[in-house]
Amino acid sequence: MAISEKRTITKQAIDFPAWYQDVVREAELAESSEVRGCGIVRPYGLKIWELIKAELSRRLEDDGVENVYFPIFVPLENLEAEKDHVEGFAPELAVVTHAGGEELTNKLAIRPTSEAAMYKTYAKWIQSYKDLPLRLNQWANVVRWEKRPRAFLRWSEFLWQEGHTAFATEDEARAEVIKMLDIYKDIYDFMAIPTFTGRKSENEKFAGAVMTTTVEVMAKDGKAIQGATSHYLGTNFAEVFGVNYLGADGNSHFAHQNSWGLSWRSVGALVMVHGDDNGLRLPPNIAPIQIIIVPIYKDEVSRQQVLDFCGTIKNKFGSNYRIKIDERDGQTPGFKFNYWEVRGVPVRLEVGLKEVAENKVTLFRRDNGVKEVMAIEDLSKALPVIMSDIHQSLYQQAVDFSAKHINRIESWDEIKDQAGWFEASWSEDPETEKQLKEKYGIVSRVLLREKENEAPKNKKCFISGQEAKHDWLFAKCY
Amino acid sequence: MAISEKRTITKQAIDFPAWYQDVVREAELAESSEVRGCGIVRPYGLKIWELIKAELSRRLEDDGVENVYFPIFVPLENLEAEKDHVEGFAPELAVVTHAGGEELTNKLAIRPTSEAAMYKTYAKWIQSYKDLPLRLNQWANVVRWEKRPRAFLRWSEFLWQEGHTAFATEDEARAEVIKMLDIYKDIYDFMAIPTFTGRKSENEKFAGAVMTTTVEVMAKDGKAIQGATSHYLGTNFAEVFGVNYLGADGNSHFAHQNSWGLSWRSVGALVMVHGDDNGLRLPPNIAPIQIIIVPIYKDEVSRQQVLDFCGTIKNKFGSNYRIKIDERDGQTPGFKFNYWEVRGVPVRLEVGLKEVAENKVTLFRRDNGVKEVMAIEDLSKALPVIMSDIHQSLYQQAVDFSAKHINRIESWDEIKDQAGWFEASWSEDPETEKQLKEKYGIVSRVLLREKENEAPKNKKCFISGQEAKHDWLFAKCY
Fold first, then answer.
1. Do B383 and B457 belong together in one domain?
2. Residue A101 CB neighbour total at 10 angstroms
3. pLDDT of A471 above 60
4. Within-domain flag for A279
5. For all residues of chain A together, what is the average pLDDT?
């Protein structure tokens, strides 16, 4: 895009959703497609997702999970087999009615998630307790038709992974819920994003699950983003699809199942947690480019000298960092600084004739805007420290922000003054949550794990005045 | 699967397609799904695809290609814009007519390939010659409704990568065709599979392309498998979707485009090229397990000794090889030998009390069935040599097989005696190819690159007797 066409980024304080859209566009993460509700993820945005995916893949493989691929099509009758499941997903289905030039006798849904696509086959694979546990994962696209699409966070088609397990016992399956929740928490840590982990309410749990746990993230406008979920499905699907096994006791038992998933929503969360008025800010772990070198020169002679020096730096650090020289002619250094700041590159090295002469670079940190001049010989030692410090600083900023934006409230009347999240003692009555949603567009986000076994601070529910069960976190959400 | 249920593998010589189906099932590569024409790829089969994918990804990234993700849905009107393209793909389309509980005004095809999904956006991204070349790749699922499905080779849904480029000039785009063809050839080399590379006939080229090149592979029944294709699209799509650029000359020009793709058909090719009557044989590069250790013991005391010894070996070589110990109780060594032979694991190490006492292993090679006893201290040096030798031996067997199964023929009458491929001098008249297809189910497979600038051996076409242009390869195909 030529300079003249450059559009500015709306300030976060003016209009956060507009700011988000601007950053997604200007950083060339993604854009809308011709198909309403579906997005095009551009190379820079997709690379971030691939780096997240690589880390999660590694974790799953280390944990013994194997990958599988099931068809994108699910017979409608399978989806309809589990009552809660179909109620939850029916409104969002895309349906194939014609294929190969003919009308299909059995219409096919495009998977919105794969429980109904996989578990009849699990029933075939699982015969005896010796076939358990079965722990499989699928990297795939899924489709949930969205009325109000938003880049990464709510597109009608999205990429994700979905894990699907079968265990002999409830205890094992419940342990799996927490194990996966912790892995998801680690993946967000890897992105320098603090999370709030715990259980979902009855209204907010996955359609068909006994229990849903969640990794919740706070965006910079004080809304919540559901970052990943890990479900205990009980024997709900096993009973419908016949996933049972012959136990060591000689009897037949239903398997206890889980599903757990993380999608490229995580890229949207990343933008909303770390971004600022100048654009993206990326932690080094998932930055497609960790170091950008910008050469500064006036004429052909200095150009070659400067570029040679840049090349030496790139060669020196290229095996340890994702590093790039911005060699474009016809763009000013100022344009390039801005270009890479918008894209959130953690470290910029500026190299001019002065730097060449003194064997130095000027190092700029995107996270805090600090510049310092550094001798080349100090760079090897300094870079790991700086990268780790950028990660830590982004993480701490997000922690501080969250802490400031969670208030404790005791009554319904206080809700109207809340800009971010709030904690309140709640009866867990689904009816009260519906009232809250209708009146304020707020729902419960999570019962934190550490609050699960704690008495609520207030004995009375902040909505109904009835007996409160736990202290929950509430918020508006994406 | 319990031993009692074990089904045997049909002999290749008796019924090759049945043999193929048996191996795919018994090696647990894949199985049919409830959705006709779509398959389920199991962990062992998917891991092979992931290893192929990792190597191709690395090659593409090294070559500066970036990944992108476009929606799975393509507006029908886009597909209909390029006349040849829609004619080629219309019979295979799956169409979404309903989504989100409503009938769609504009029906959506599921991508059979993404030219029509991407190039309107390319038109937006490309303004000036400075935006060129554009070289993007997508790893995705596509759907082409199959009347006669076959595991990996012809499923209605398959996974692949599709590269899509735009260049300023025809020369550059034609050079890209060959560059990608060579990369595909290398990927098949990586799988120890020899290939026949060159140009496709007018009838057999990609719908919408000016020219298609192909990587052809010979299966062990003498049929051909199209392993990957690399197309020069000319300005056909560019003219339809408006992919033009302002040249340095100040004028507007259409971009010259390519598309190129490789799918998990490559896994099917692998089975059909290397497999034997005992099942799969995998070259080490893409073997999910490169070394299987089978412990042999009679009682609890020897069991522990043997397992400890196996553990030591695994620890010693685990960082250099994908290695696994088959610790299953209740299965005989003989069962385990067969189990891993069916799955094509290149090297088996047998460890019994004798081996423990003498600090040795018995090493079995799947490619040639040879066993040898080897001292543990020699294993570090021997393994790289053995792995490389297995690769080379599988490759050479396939080369020898191909050489034996290509005959030269001069006339139509000789066709009926051909079991494998044949070479013949051909007029390249599409009508003669139609006759050949109708009568014998045979089509041209490839005009080898080295034959492109050679005069045909026979001046007369083997079908029509008219002037022959080149010597082509012909075969039945999957």
1. no
2. 12
3. yes
4. no
5. 96
Determine, yes or no, domain membership for B54: yes
> Quick check: B415 and B443 in contact, CB under 8 A?
no
- Residues B216 and B336 grouped into a single domain: no
A167/A180 same-domain check: yes
Give this complex's ipTM. Answer: 0.96
Please check whether residue A303 touches B, CB under 8 A.
no
**Parent domain of A389:** 284-401
Q: Is B71 in contact with A35 (CB distance < 8 Å)?
A: yes
Could you report the per-residue pLDDT of A292-350, keeping only the tens digit for each?
999 999 898 899 999 999 999 999 999 999 999 999 998 999 999 999 999 999 999 99
CA dihedral B24, B29, B32, B35 (to 10 degrees): -150
Cα–Cα distance for residue pair A114/A138, rounded to 1 Å: 9
Residues A243 and A311 grouped into a single domain:
no
Which chain B residue shows the shortest CA-CA distance from A116?
A: B34
State the DSSP H helix or E strand holding residue B15, giving kind and residue range, or none if neither: none
Q: In this complex, which of B43, B71, B121 lies closest to A136 when CB atoms are compared?
A: B43
Q: Could you tell me which of B89, B12, B17 has the C-alpha nearest to residue B478?
A: B17
- Smallest Cβ–Cβ distance between A96 and the set B39, B91, B94 belongs to B94
CATH number at B336 reads 3.40.50.800
- Residue B80 maps to a domain: no
A421 shares a domain with A365: no
What average pLDDT does range A183-192 have in this prediction? 98
Q: Which residue has the tokens 């937006």?
A: B124
pLDDT digits (tens, 9 = 90+) for B361-407: 999 999 999 999 999 999 999 999 999 999 999 999 999 999 999 99
Q: Which of A1, A29, A35 to mutate to test the interface with B (most CBs of B within 10 A)?
A: A35
Q: Are residues A319 and A246 in the same domain?
A: no
Question: Tens digits of per-residue pLDDT, A244-265?
Answer: 999 999 999 999 999 999 999 9
Say yes or no: A265 and A302 in one domain: no
3-state secondary structure of B219: coil
Judgement on whether residues B291 and B392 belong to the same structural domain of the protein: yes
User: Which of B224, B245, B274 is a domain's end point?
Assistant: B274
- The answer as to whether B442 is a domain residue is yes
Total structural domains within chain B: 3
Chain center to CA of A27: 18
pLDDT of residue A416: 87
Number of H helices, E strands in chain B: 13, 23
Give the C-alpha separation, A60 to B43, whole Å.
Answer: 13
